[in-house]
């Protein structure tokens, strides 16, 4: 899960719909105001137990230094996806 701050109105990104489909990516945006960030965190917290339970989804979080362990778990099929936590 990633949370990004606001950018300038002139900022642009390019997205490939096929890569979004292939990599199962979802983009969610919220209107930024002084009260939206706590609401967004509440929304994530409320969804967590039903939709974002990594264990039930076969997702495991690793540090970047554990990349070999993550790739091995993916090859063995013990996890469905690996996420890397960047400190």
Rg calculated over all Cα atoms: 16 Å
Mean pLDDT value: 82
Provide the helix percentage.
40-55%
* Shape by Cα distribution: extended
- What characterizes the major β-sheet? 2 strands, parallel
Uncertain segments: none
Written as H for each helix and E for each strand, in order along the chain, the element string is HHHEHE
Taken together, the total number of domains comes to 1
Look at the helices and sheets and give the structural class. Answer: alpha+beta
Distance between the termini: 14 Å
Query: Total helix count?
Result: 4
Portion in strands: 5-15%
Number of strands: 2
Largest sheet: spatial strand order:
1-2
Brief overview, please?
It comes from Coptotermes formosanus. By secondary structure, this protein is of the alpha+beta class.
Tell me what you see in this structure:
This is Sorbitol dehydrogenase-like protein. This protein is of the alpha+beta class. It has one domain (17-85). Helices cover 41% and strands 11% of the residues. The chain has a two-stranded parallel sheet with strand order 1-2. It is extended, with a radius of gyration of 16 Å. It starts with 16 loop residues before the first helix and ends with a strand. The mean pLDDT is 82.
């Amino acid at each position: 899960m990633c949370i990004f701050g606001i950018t300038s109105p002139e900022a642009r990104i390019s997205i490939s719909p096929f890569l979004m489909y292939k990599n199962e990516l979802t983009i969610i945006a919220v209107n930024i105001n002084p009260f939206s960030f706590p609401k967004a965190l509440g929304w994530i917290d409320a969804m967590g137990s039903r939709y974002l339970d990594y264990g039930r989804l076969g997702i495991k979080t690793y540090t970047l230094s554990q990349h070999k362990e993550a790739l091995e778990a993916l090859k063995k099929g013990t996890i469905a996806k690996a996420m890397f936590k960047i400190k």
